[in-house]
């Protein structure tokens, strides 16, 4: 990292200015010399899809830290082409007037010295402020840029944070460097996850291709996995098998278990197994899975030599919905009416629009409707329209053909509508969908056909659409941000979910439910909440609804105590104790370490110097917090 004001930094700026003169950059120019048109930008976005998706949540976190301080964050590709921009409206409007927009190239050859272009050239994080920029129009900015690299060290993009020049501070560059490293880690994790998923699919394909039944179970007999042939053998779905115990299908499980415990060596025996229709005589091979102490922890059961004709099952492709109506907790009369209405409309072919505040369980209801319908054996495909960059939504929804743009996959890629054929597509945050894509979505809904990008071929799809929003779409229609005809197409069967404040009678029930579930999941004791405190929780307004209540219970279980009521009111507690100061307020006062120390002190004060609760609020372990207290010489 090149420290601002250092000899090395000054030399980088001087050499960069010399390059700008060689490139014939005009000191008085305002716009980049290279800005992509819409088609070129689409191809660029598709080429960098993985980078854009990995960077989006990290850019949001950085922006949340400086929100309201007139900063904006930029992501570019390896050539300096802007891929994504987020920030405060006032400074963004000014930046857009300079055409600092997606598709604009910020490399030195097109716009002169700046943090993004110069950090690519120098292969180093760098901060460029005021007159250090070559063109005069950028003298108002201070920008901190850092290269983003792949596992081989090759630059694949840059991350930048830009504000007004009077806000320049070295800690901003440190924040950007941390963000770039986080993006690199996310890309690496995504690559490893993709590799593991591919290997897992390959292993499953191999197992599914073998005409033997494979079942994995723990030593208590709970079934952990099963291949397709095992499902056929026992005449049930894979999901049903995973909810069974070995004793449900194997008459002599106790004998098998005893043999494993006595010897823990592989063995074979003839057994009777129980299918849905009758009892089958099969040969069983048992392979114990041992830990480092040579103790059997799991067991692999291989069933062979089928004596009866097997039941065939259809292969179900795509994502599955896991929630059902019986998993929805609530006894409030109005809420039960909502559930009953949702059940009644489940089998309708009409579209559903689920409305409700954040945290009320819109996707839970969407999945339950799907599982209650005749489409339950089909795919349930969800897409959050507000979480994917605008340039990628179209290809995510409708897919693309091979060669339709640079970087397109060989053979093309199906969209969500194709994947959901025969099932349900859930469009969350539908109010965030761009207007031009609303037109394409309306056509798919009206005609029941979809065409991939780069193709004139229309594919017929049978998809039930469930949309959800926390916005007032009628108001959005009046504002001109949502198509009226699409609204009426989606709002055929409106389903409004009540906020938690509208079903206060369910709060005690939900507290008990989450306490039981979370304590088991975390293997921790339940926390007793006194009746008088429950009354306070019932009176609380719960702006985050059921999700906020669940988070509160998880905090209680993790800290093994009842959190103070003020931790629920984030806005109030932030103003009182742990509010993070904006970059503009602290840039001339605190270093990164000082900011960290002050934040820890504030959190300790807000939690009454309770180490366990403070560590939970900070998102770190107790031992880590103790090290921080020692490092910063904080008395507790």
UniProtKB/TrEMBL annotation:
Designated name of the protein: PAS domain S-box-containing protein
Lineage of source species: Bacteria, Bacillati, Bacillota, Tissierellia, Sedimentibacter
NCBIfam families with a match to the protein in the record: sensory_box (TIGR00229)
Record GO biological process: regulation of DNA-templated transcription
Listed InterPro entries: AAA+_ATPase, AAA_lid_NorR, GAF, GAF-like_dom_sf, Homeodomain-like_sf, HTH_Fis, P-loop_NTPase, PAS
Any one Gene Ontology molecular-function term assigned to this protein's record: ATP binding
Highest taxon listed in the record's lineage: Bacteria
Segments forming domain PAS: 199-242
PANTHER family in alphabetical order: C4-DICARBOXYLATE TRANSPORT TRANSCRIPTIONAL REGULATORY PROTEIN DCTD, TRANSCRIPTIONAL REGULATORY PROTEIN
Ranges for domain Sigma-54 factor interaction: 328-558
Keywords for this protein: ATP-binding, DNA-binding, Nucleotide-binding, Transcription, Transcription regulation
């Amino acid at each position: 990292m090149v420290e601002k004001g250092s000899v090395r930094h000054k030399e980088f700026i001087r050499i960069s200015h010399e390059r700008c003169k060689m490139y014939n950059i005009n000191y008085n120019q305002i716009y980049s010399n290279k800005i992509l048109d819409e088609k070129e930008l689409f191809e660029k976005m598709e080429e960098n899809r993985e980078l854009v998706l990995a960077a989006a949540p990290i850019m949001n976190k950085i922006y949340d830290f400086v929100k309201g301080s007139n900063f904006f964050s930029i992501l570019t590709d390896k050539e300096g082409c802007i891929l994504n921009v987020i920030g405060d409206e006032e400074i963004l409007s000014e930046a857009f007037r300079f055409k600092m927009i997606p598709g604009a190239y910020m490399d030195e050859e097109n716009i002169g010295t700046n943090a993004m272009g110069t950090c690519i050239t120098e292969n180093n994080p760098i901060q460029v402020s005021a007159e250090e920029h070559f063109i005069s129009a950028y003298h108002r900015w201070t920008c901190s840029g850092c290269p983003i690299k792949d596992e081989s060290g090759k630059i694949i993009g840059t991350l930048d944070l830009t504000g007004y020049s009077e806000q320049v501070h070295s800690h901003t560059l440190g924040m950007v460097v941390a963000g770039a490293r986080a993006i690199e880690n996310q890309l690496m994790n995504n690559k490893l996850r993709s590799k593991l998923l591919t290997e897992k699919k390959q292993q499953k394909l191999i197992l599914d291709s073998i005409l033997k039944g494979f079942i994995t179970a723990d030593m208590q007999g709970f079934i952990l996995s099963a291949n397709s042939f095992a499902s056929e053998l026992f005449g049930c779905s894979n999901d049903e098998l995973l909810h069974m115990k070995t004793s449900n299908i194997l008459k002599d499980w106790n004998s098998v278990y005893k043999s494993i415990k006595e010897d823990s060596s592989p063995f074979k025996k003839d057994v009777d197994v129980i299918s849905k229709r009758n009892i089958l005589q099969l040969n069983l091979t048992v392979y114990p899975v041992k830990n480092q102490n040579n103790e059997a922890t799991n067991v692999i059961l291989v069933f062979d030599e089928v004596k009866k004709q097997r039941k065939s099952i259809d292969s179900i492709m795509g994502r599955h919905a896991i929630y059902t109506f019986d998993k929805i907790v609530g006894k409030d009369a109005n809420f039960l009416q909502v559930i009953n209405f949702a059940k009644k409309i489940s089998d309708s072919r009409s579209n559903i629009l689920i409305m409700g505040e954040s945290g009320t369980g819109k996707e839970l209801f969407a999945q339950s409707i799907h599982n209650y319908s005749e489409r339950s054996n089909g795919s349930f495909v969800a897409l959050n329209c507000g979480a994917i960059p605008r340039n990628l939504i179209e290809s995510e929804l409708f897919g693309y053909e091979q060669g339709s743009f640079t970087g397109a996959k060989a053979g093309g890629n199906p969209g969500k509508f194709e994947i959901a054929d025969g099932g349900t597509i859930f469009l969350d945050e539908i109010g965030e969908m761009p207007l031009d894509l609303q037109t394409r979505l309306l056509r798919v809904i009206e005609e029941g056909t979809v065409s991939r990008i780069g193709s004139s071929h229309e594919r017929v799809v049978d998809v039930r659409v469930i949309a959800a929003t926390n916005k007032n779409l009628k108001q959005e229609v009046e504002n001109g941000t949502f198509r009226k005809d699409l609204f009426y197409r989606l709002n055929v069967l409106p389903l409004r979910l009540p906020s938690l404040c509208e079903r206060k009678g369910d709060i005690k029930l939900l507290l008990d439910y989450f306490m039981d579930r979370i304590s088991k999941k975390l293997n921790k004791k339940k926390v007793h909440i006194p009746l008088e405190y429950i009354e306070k929780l019932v009176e609380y307004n719960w702006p985050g609804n059921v999700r906020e209540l669940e988070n509160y219970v998880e905090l209680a279980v993790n800290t093994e105590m009842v959190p103070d009521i003020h931790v629920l009111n984030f806005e109030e507690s932030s103003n009182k104790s742990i509010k993070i100061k904006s970059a503009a307020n602290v840039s001339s006062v605190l270093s990164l370490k000082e900011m960290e120390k002050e934040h820890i002190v504030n959190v300790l004060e807000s939690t009454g110097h309770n180490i366990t609760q403070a560590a939970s609020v900070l998102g770190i372990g107790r031992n880590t917090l103790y090290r921080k207290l020692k490092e910063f010489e904080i008395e507790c």
